[in-house]
Amino acid sequence: MKTPGRSKPAPNDLLIAGAQELGIRLGTEQIGAFRLYLEEVLRWSERMNITALTTPADIIREGFLDSLACLALIPNDARNILDVGSGAGFPALPLAIVRDDLDFTLVEASRKKVTFLKHIARSLGLRHVRVWYGRAEAMEGGLLAAEAYDVALARAVAPLPDQAALVLSFLRPGGVFLAQVGSGGVPEEARDQLAAAGYEAAGERRVPPWKGGGLGHQVLAYRRRRRPNTEECFT
What we know:
Blueprint: H1 11-21, H2 28-45, H3 56-68, E1 80-84, H4 92-98, E2 103-108, H5 111-123, E3 129-133, E4 149-153, H6 160-168, E5 171-181, H7 188-196, E6 199-206, E7 218-224, H8 230-233
Parallel strand pairs: 1-2, 1-4, 2-3, 4-5
Antiparallel strand pairs: 5-7, 6-7
Helix pairs in contact: 1-3, 2-3, 3-4
């Protein structure tokens, strides 16, 4: 005879409770969009590597909710958001689901993942989302205009100083780079590199340690002050 145990929360309940903890109230349509997104991540992951997150709970906690934690650090006057190395769409697509007043440009170097991202954007009716195939550093002056974006996102595509260098030229002066980092924060050497490159700390948000998941991450905001010499600052 099995000993009764505490049942795991349903995906919708986990999402709603986590969003509320972040101060976000999701509407019925948004909850439905996240449910479809989750189903498609799981379905596509059966035949290709979309994300390292493999369970519904992990996708909700570390994909959807960690992404939504960025919301509080997006400036009120922001309009154009760039996400480099979008992968399965985190953090840009969860943010796009709750902020249809912002324009999102997703850049991804894997053609298969670009196909997935376009499918999700089309399936969810996210007309304010564009997806480009290629590497951001090779697209400046073409599909990606310099100093055209208010916010840049780059989730773990490289060490933090390298991420900052990658998005620097696309940020307008005063634009904000949002970095998702672990609970240990940023090493002093990396902070010094960011400051030397022309970034200044502009805020932080500690992600709650979701029940059953990790120790909690942080979202850090860095504002671009000036145009640096990146060859000198990131060598």
